[in-house]
């Protein structure tokens, strides 16, 4: 009697499932390896070799494909700054500072061409660039994030400068005071860094009471409070202070019941800047 070699339908199904599983695993492995290779190697077919140098310009737009990203090189800080200076927002901010914030400081006698200026919370360096363009060449900026060549990394609560090293401490960022972890310490360090007879100019939102900011500065007197335009559309409030040549008696603990913070209503939702003499 002959032995039947025909497989049962169940055995055929199991064999087919195993075969399909193995093929699927092999395809997944091949696809993964191919993807890793593409990510680690730029395709030589992206652009002709003769065109590659032209695609490495520093002012190239944001890459929209893997070929664009592969053809880009690291942009030098000077070239990156040139691109930012060409943007409408940068030009608008610099023009607003030059026309709205700087002239009153010159009128108060705390800003001149030879002045040494420290910009706190400088961001990308709008204020530093505006000071230099206006003739104040010795202007430097500090922020928690370095942005060369205009801004160096430093903690505004502990600026790495000697006492009385600057003629003016300036900030066009309202969050420099309202967003600081320790506003009273920031104010104390700003007063330390400014020479006697120098000034401090800070921008802050108009929702914040002027007295709440002014009382942070124990060794300075208020010179002026005014509304300024810092980016061509939004208004802020600027507080200008001076550190007197004669030693000033420190104010008491008024306004410090909130731990040196800035709070309280006031203003109408636009913004102001304070100038103080240190």
Description:
This protein has a domain at 95-278: Rossmann fold. The chain has 278 residues and is α/β, with parallel strands linked by helices. Strands 1, 2, 3, 4, 5, 6, 7 and 8 form an eight-stranded mixed sheet that branches. Helix 4 (88-107) packs across helix 5 (126-133). Helix 5 links the parallel strand 1 and strand 2 (139-143). The N and C termini lie far apart (114 Å). It has helices spanning 9-40, 66-71, 77-85, 88-107, 126-133, 175-178, 183-193, 210-214, and strands spanning 117-120, 139-143, 151-153, 166-171, 194-204, 221-229, 235-242, 272-277. The longest helix has 32 residues, at 9-40. The protein is 34% helix and 19% strand.
Q: Layout of SSEs?
A:
Blueprint: H1 9-40, H2 66-71, H3 77-85, H4 88-107, E1 117-120, H5 126-133, E2 139-143, E3 151-153, E4 166-171, H6 175-178, H7 183-193, E5 194-204, H8 210-214, E6 221-229, E7 235-242, E8 272-277
Parallel strand pairs: 1-2, 1-4, 2-3, 4-5, 7-8
Antiparallel strand pairs: 5-8, 6-7, 6-8
Helix pairs in contact: 4-5
User: What value does the Rg take, in angstroms?
Assistant: 30 Å
Helix content: 25-40%
- The residue ranges in which pLDDT falls below 50 over 5 or more consecutive positions are 49-59, 248-271
The computed structural class is alpha/beta
Keywords: Membrane, Transmembrane, Transmembrane helix
Transmembrane segments: 20-39
Region (Disordered): 241-278
Biased composition (Basic and acidic residues): 241-253
